[in-house]
Amino acid sequence: MNGTDEHNDEPTEDKWTCQIMAAEGVGGVVGNLLVCYVILRVKFLHNMTNYLLVNLAVADMLLCLQVFLNALTSDCNLIAFAPLSNGVRDLFCRLLESRFLAWAMSCATAYNLCVVTLERYIAIVHPLHYARKLTTARMVTLIALVWVISFLIPLPFLFTIEPSNDPNKMCSFKYPHLLPPVLLGIIGFLFIYLLPLTLMSVAYYKMQVTLKRQAKALHQQHARAAAYDLVIARQNLVSMLKTVLGALIVLWTLDYLAILLCLHRTDKAQFSFCGSKVFSYIRNFSNLLYNLNSVINPIIYEFKYKKFRQGFKVAFCNCFKNHGGNSVDVEMVPL
């Protein structure tokens, strides 16, 4: 995500790195579009959890789109981009070059996954309160609030850069003091990485404990197969979501640790290591991992989410056209 690093005159990515970034952007946009299409197209996937997954896919898709645009213009200059008007140039610097959109979409991804986790947490741990607490109006309000917050948290980045008067440099960073970039990096680490990931980890632990207790009780009581199958289905869905969260933790951690290590721009960082070529390679690699997170979620759904896999066949294979249209998605039943 590049954090608060400043672009200098040295090449920041090798050509192959730029090409991988562009490929990640395209792959992420296409994959998440497919997720949206399948869930919205197939009737038996129409439920609260899957709609929230669509919202998460939109966030991932927009993150991948800005990665692709950055690869083409800002980071790698794979195409010659020269805004003709000062207004377009100013927007380019403040939205893309400043990393405002990168931070905003990252925040949207993290907190939309939190919303998915919240829905499952209440359905499993507090099922009697599900219908009362998670009404459609409340969920729409919560999703809207997540998107607003996602654009508010990185708002200071809009004011850390401006068009440059240097003909060889499109944008220039402007920090009136050494403190702002440090604060921005710390706030990003705390509120976009540490806080949502900690909350989700605790929630999934409690869900797993509850589901194991329910399964054990049903097994001892020799309950009906349908009730036991429902608990197993919920366990499978939670397992899939835990895989999504685990991938996010693995693929995001290196990038945020690098940001935390070198909070200021590389030419004025607290460690000389932050301006070295080795650190530049680490940042490039961590950025590739970071972007990969938004690419692999559709792949996780395909391999770990049985209902999505069935829906994919229904949406794209004529031989499954009339199969499963009225089936019940037991994994999503809240009670």
From TrEMBL:
Alphabetic keyword roster: G-protein coupled receptor, Membrane, Receptor, Transducer, Transmembrane, Transmembrane helix
Keyword rRNA-binding annotated: no
Cellular localisation: Membrane
Domain of life according to the entry: Eukaryota
Gene Ontology CC entries for this record: membrane
Chief place of localization: membrane
Coiled-coil ranges from the UniProt annotation: none
Gene3D superfamilies referenced in this protein's UniProt entry, alphabetically: Rhodopsin 7-helix transmembrane proteins (1.20.1070.10)
Span of domain G-protein coupled receptors family 1 profile: 31-301
One of the record's GO molecular function terms: G protein-coupled receptor activity
Transmembrane segments: 20-40, 52-72, 100-118, 139-161, 181-205, 244-261
Family the entry assigns: Belongs to the G-protein coupled receptor 1 family.
Descriptive protein name: G-protein coupled receptors family 1 profile domain-containing protein
Phylogenetic placement of the source organism: Eukaryota, Metazoa, Echinodermata, Eleutherozoa, Asterozoa
